[in-house]
Design a protein that fits this description.
Number of helices: 0
Number of strands: 11
Shape: elongated
Low-confidence stretches: none
Order of helices and strands: EEEEEEEEEEE
Mean pLDDT: 84
Length: 121
Amino acid sequence: DVALVHNGPMLTTFRVRTTMAVPEDFKFDSMTRSDRSADLVIDSLISLRQVKGAWELRMFNPDVKAISATIHLAAKTGSAKPAASAQRVDCESNPLGQLKVNGGKCKVALKPKQIITVRLG
């Protein structure tokens, strides 16, 4: 489920909701799962904004586990051509380091509850 949270001239934010059926209960003493399931809902917020002539993608990992995300740079971003490079930046758009781009894709790791910003160029 993807929902548009905010759509302004300088910032767009989407909420990506994933629902998974997980066992309702787990008994550690007998190492058994419940036959019943419960919904586990995970919400992620993804923002895209234009800063200094480039696009910045801000991602948040709401989980308690580290995750890996893949950014596909070949998609058009509203500019004349697709992005060809990716760079980590801080919340004020200051550079933190280049990211490796391979085959038009860039992988980033997010720690639990971490927010990262990537500039696409």
